[in-house]
């Protein structure tokens, strides 16, 4: 589904940052855009920065379910700083909090959490309802290794030695009695 990304530019609050950029909204089904001004209030400006495709994958339905179960279901917008007149490049929009976390780990990308509109929530929920399958828990069984055959404290039988290589204090006490 094509999703428009709305970025908001406001004046910075410190002398080190002239502008503060945030992803403020998403527009499901938006037409293509390239930094088109949507609204301007004083020095604050909102841009329809880009329209990206929101792709859902059947293997990631658990992540979508986790995101829909949050207090505020959200999509995540991944941006990269770049040099030039436009300081950000919008790279990705995803409904998976797990994928967003992967981009956060690099430290080079900016990941913004944007609340999902109601129509987008319904679309993602329908996808999850159709493709999600709970994983069946399979208990792992122990190996059938015979532990009673262990010769504690004898070491490698191929190596000649005058005494035991290792003997635990409990084993030594048993031998002394």
How does the SSE layout of this entry go?
Elements lengths: L1 E13 L2 E12 L7 E6 L2 E10 L7 H8 L5 E8 L6 E7 L2 H10 L3 E6 L2 H14 L37 H8 L1
Antiparallel strand pairs: 1-2, 1-4, 3-4, 5-6, 5-7
Helix pairs in contact: 1-3
Description:
- The model has no long low-confidence stretch (mean pLDDT 86).
- The protein starts with a strand and ends with a helix.
- A four-stranded antiparallel β-sheet has the order 2-1-4-3, with no helix packed on it. A three-stranded antiparallel β-sheet has the order 6-5-7, covered by helices on one side.
- It contains four helices and seven strands.
- With 177 residues, the chain is of the alpha+beta class.
- α1 packs across α3.
Low-confidence stretches: none
| Average pLDDT, all residues | 86
Strand order of the largest sheet: 2-1-4-3
H/E topology pattern: EEEEHEEHEHH
N-to-C span: 79 Å
Tally the helices: what do you get?
Answer: 4
Indicate the radius of gyration in whole angstroms.
29 Å
The amount of helix comes to 10-25%
Strand tally is 7
Class based on secondary structure composition and strand pairing: alpha+beta
Biggest sheet layout: 4 strands, antiparallel
Distinctive features:
alpha+beta, 177 residues, elongated
């Amino acid at each position: 589904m094509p999703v428009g990304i709305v970025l908001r530019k406001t004046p910075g609050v410190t002398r080190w940052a002239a502008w503060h950029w945030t992803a403020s909204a998403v527009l499901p089904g938006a037409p293509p855009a390239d930094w088109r001004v949507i609204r301007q209030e004083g020095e604050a400006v909102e841009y329809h920065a880009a329209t990206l495709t929101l792709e859902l994958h059947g293997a990631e339905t658990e992540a979508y379910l986790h995101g829909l179960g949050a207090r505020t279901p959200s999509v995540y917008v991944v941006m990269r700083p770049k040099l030039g007149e436009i300081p950000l490049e919008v790279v990705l929009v995803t409904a998976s909090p797990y994928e967003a976390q992967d981009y956060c780990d690099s430290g080079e990308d900016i990941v913004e959490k944007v609340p999902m509109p109601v129509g987008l929530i319904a679309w993602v929920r329908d996808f999850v309802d159709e493709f999600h399958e709970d994983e069946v828990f399979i208990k792992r069984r122990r190996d059938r290794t015979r532990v009673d055959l262990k010769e504690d404290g004898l070491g490698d039988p191929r190596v000649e030695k005058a005494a035991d290589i290792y003997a635990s204090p409990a084993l030594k006490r048993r031998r002394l009695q």
